[in-house]
Amino acid sequence: MNTPIRTTHRTGTPTRRALLAGGVGLSGAALAGCLGTGGGSDTDSAAAGGTDGPLEGTVKFWTINLRKNFQAYFDQLIADFEAENPEVTVEWIDVPGQEMQTKYLAALTTGDVPDAVNVDSKNLGQLATTFAAIEDHFSTEDLETYQPGLVDGLRVQDTLYAIPWYNSGTLVGVWRKSTMDEVGFDPASPPQSWEEALDLADEVHEATGVYGTNSDPSLRRLQAMGVEFVNEDLTEATFATEDAANLVARFQDSYAGGGIAPGASALDAQEPQTVANGQIAFQADMGPGELTTLQNDAPDAYADVYVTTSPRDQNGNDQMTGQHSMAVPAQSENPAAGAAFIKFMTSAEAQLGFCELAPIFPSAKETLEADLFTAEAGDDPIEQARRIVVENFPNAVDTTVQLPPGIPDQIRQDFIMAMKETMRTGADPAPVLEAQQAAWQEQLDSAQDAG
Questions:
Q1: What is the reported pLDDT for 270?
Q2: What's the pTM value of the predicted model, to 2 decimals?
Q3: CB atoms < 10 A from the CB of 312, how many?
Q4: For an engineered disulfide with 45, which of 94, 280, 340, 422 has Cβ 3.0 to 4.6 Å away?
């Protein structure tokens, strides 16, 4: 396990001046966010944790892969929290992402449990029963700080187990001008649904000979098209329907006709046809952060793209592929202080400081009102993507298909691989969906029996 970094408000703690002199790159707005007003008084912090009086004791705080690039930010955040809560000491442990779940489960066994832990939303369902219900520590008013769609994405069987923290933004559409102009594409009127996007992909290939896109019938895309994978109680798999089979068949038709590139069926996730190499006309659901990679790795392709909204789901929501959140373990020895620290670090001000340092988006509504996000965007694709994400953030939803505790993430991966293979072979989707649903149901039943 990583050696904890224990930070207290003492001589030697980085000051605002020292952070700037050290080249960390914090602007004045960031400093206002991460250095002072995030958590309120110690009485307020105590209230957030559901206790009376000042907080005290140790808060063991775990993050995922953040120390290397953001240690100064977290050192100061911790120092400020300790200054407002002088009887509290925060111990910070940063864990590699691939080790987080293993180390956390081991901690539950040994009893050395964190009090505030960083959780990727894709893992929340499997770990939910190890966390305290957030409503035990956060009031309705507290929860109003955050985007509702992101809060709702952290509910498992109607119980909220985590607080949304940071994310990579909602998806955007990225379109090669040189190809899309040939078919009269209007970036002001991009496809609003996946059905429209597939129709456009077919049109592009027929008119230009260029593959339209490289999308497969993933969980997220089928979910956007109306497929429900599990019931609200997370006890029954529900996706093997005639409608779902027809939607998969729609992807098969585009794949067979060249609207979807051959590489979309690759089982190793290394798609040989991309916007970067110019072999597809568009990617309708790119993560905003991928534009930075495109700019660095393929500047000519970057200069040749429009950026628009992505196809929305059937409820008009903008999809987000996951988010980072913070939870209070049920076995925490200091849950009141742990919850108070989460409230402090996810405040609008503290999140602004973090967003100043990284290409991320916040969960706090007020953070999006800062100049960082409201400044007029230029024509640069990255700036356009930021504008689109911010404008549509009230409609953002976390599209993670939550699974109950005890269900391995592998069943999601098995589904994706089965859909890719079905798209490649043109096999009847109905029996494939039925087989996948049976496999999911077996896991769900086992989880219920174990519970």
A1: 66
A2: 0.83
A3: 20
A4: 340
